[in-house]
Amino acid sequence: AQTVTQSQPEMSVQEAETVTLSCTYDTSESDYYLFWYKQPPSRQMILVIRQEAYKQQNATENRFSVNFQKAAKSFSLKISDSQLGDAAMYFCAYRNGLIMNRDDKIIFGKGTRLHILP
Amino acid sequence: EPEVTQTPSHQVTQMGQEVILRCVPISNHLYFYWYRQILGQKVEFLVSFYNNEISEKSEIFDDQFSVERPDGSNFTLKIRSTKLEDSAMYFCASSDVAGNQPQHFGDGTRLSIL
């Protein structure tokens, strides 16, 4: 079974600084997708960024980028120029690519709560 | 941008009562999901639904739970006899194609069981 591990329950960063959130995962599949979701206090689930496992290039979305290390099964999120609105719970998540037996559920980590210090 | 819509935003129900959580997925989407998040815990998969049948369900999704797509637009989650431990945030999600397309989440329904 696939697992997603986030070892940092909470992190803090000064506004305008850069912060990296860690995530490791375990799977025996070769084709899969990885995601970072943001959950602000309103508890919406907002997709921040996604990475296809077959792509070597790290995904980037404006101030958000990932460091995808497939061999190490590591998928960290870097937030540059942190803003107060970035304060939220961040979930790392995994999904199979090859839809065997329709197994396309998303598996979430436990989350990292990010605080932005003004 | 199209959204997944969930109603109500907050549902308060007495233990033992039936509750129906409603979701309107994005209109051209074909794959539907329910997840739940107990306060302070991670988001957990409940069930996936495609072509008018359940594709996969987790061990959480026992006989007390059911899903239905009663018409062309709604996707519902019913809990027959609620328990205190059913109190959670319930998220509906949908996607148009399996595999590389992300699942779009609704804003969630907060279910409180008294």
SSE diagram, text form:
The complex is a heterodimer of chains A (118) and B (114).
Chain A: E1 3-5, E2 10-14, E3 19-21, E4 24-26, E5 32-39, E6 46-52, E7 60-61, E8 64-69, E9 74-79, E10 88-96, E11 106-108, E12 112-117
Parallel strand pairs in A: 2-12
Antiparallel strand pairs in A: 1-4, 3-9, 5-6, 5-10, 7-8, 8-9, 10-11, 10-12
Chain B: E1 5-7, E2 10-13, E3 19-24, E4 31-37, E5 43-50, E6 53-57, E7 65-68, E8 75-79, E9 88-95, E10 104-105, E11 109-113
Parallel strand pairs in B: 2-11
Antiparallel strand pairs in B: 1-3, 3-8, 4-5, 4-9, 5-6, 7-8, 9-10, 9-11
Report what the structure shows.
The complex is a heterodimer of chains A (118) and B (114). Helix content of chain A is 0%, strand content 52%. Chain A is mainly beta and 118 residues long. In chain A, strands 2, 5, 6, 10, 11 and 12 form a 6-stranded mixed beta sheet that branches. Chain A has a 4-stranded antiparallel beta sheet with strand order 3-9-8-7, with no helix packed on it. In chain A, a hairpin with a 6-residue loop joins β5 (32-39) and β6 (46-52). Chain A starts with a strand and ends with a strand. The model of chain A has no long low-confidence stretch (mean pLDDT 92). In chain B, the strands form 2 sheets. In chain B, strands 2, 4, 5, 6, 9, 10 and 11 form a 7-stranded mixed beta sheet that branches. Chain B has a 4-stranded antiparallel beta sheet with strand order 1-3-8-7, with no helix packed on it. In chain B, β7 (65-68) and β8 (75-79) form a beta hairpin. Chain B has strands at 5-7, 10-13, 19-24, 31-37, 43-50, 53-57, 65-68, 75-79, 88-95, 104-105, 109-113. Chain B starts with a strand and ends with a strand. Chain B is built from no helices and 11 strands. With 114 residues, chain B is mostly beta strands. Chain B is globular. At the A-B interface, β5, β6 and β11 of A face β4, β5, β9 and β10 of B.
